[in-house]
Amino acid sequence: MVQQPKVLLVEDEFAQREVLAYNLEAEGFDVIQADNGEDALLLVDEDHPDMIILDWMMPKVSGIEVCRRLKMRPETRAIPIIILSARADEVDRVRGLETGADDYVIKPYSMVELMARARAQIRRVRPSTVGMVLQFDDIRLDAESHRVYRGDKVLRLGPTEFRLLTAFMEKPGRVWSRDQLLDRVWGRDIYVDTRTVDVHVGRLRKTLCAHGHYDPIRTVRGSGYALG
């Protein structure tokens, strides 16, 4: 089973946040919540969300400032951000997008349209969650049929190794720390020792190289692992 895409929802109005969270969970998202920009920045570092839905007007740190800070940092720059705002003027929409937002939705919004926009952003960063086939070199992963091929050979992977490979193939070249892999593959509510990551990466490597192929997984000393 592919890990649910994780969305950080940042909205200071409780009723709106609850309705949004309900609809996002109904769409299959794992939702974490914050009611101000300061907490949102902390949660990004703690929970590593796949996408952020961010209200512009918030206490402590505004949504536009949260967006600016995240897009300036190399480790968070690629996280898609959808800004929600009652500011409908062209100058505000342009400011939001030029600050780095990937989408800008004006309040009041259609929930159906917002969910469609959220799915569109997730398709870019977590394509396996919508059943797309991932390809890296001669490795092909079909998330819908849960099959992995290397060249013309079918590879037999356990569920944990499959989720590990999915994370690697969704972001080739990205260096994943052991904690980040634990969060993505096992989930943040389950305690697993970081050494467990090394064991499962070893199993994945063994399967990928079973037919004499080169090892595509790179160990980055002091940091973690990367594909390619």
From TrEMBL:
Localization per Swiss-Prot or TrEMBL: Cytoplasm
Positions of modified residues (4-aspartylphosphate): D55
All copies of domain OmpR/PhoB-type, residue ranges: 131-228
UniProt DNA-binding residue ranges: 131-228
Record-annotated Response regulatory domain positions: 6-122
Classification via Pfam families: Response_reg, Trans_reg_C
Keywords on record: Activator, Cytoplasm, DNA-binding, Phosphate transport, Phosphoprotein, Transcription, Transcription regulation, Transport, Two-component regulatory system
UniProt keyword Cytoplasm present: yes
Its biological purpose: This protein is a positive regulator for the phosphate regulon. Transcription of this operon is positively regulated by PhoB and PhoR when phosphate is limited.
Protein name: Phosphate regulon transcriptional regulatory protein PhoB
Organism: Paragemmobacter amnigenus
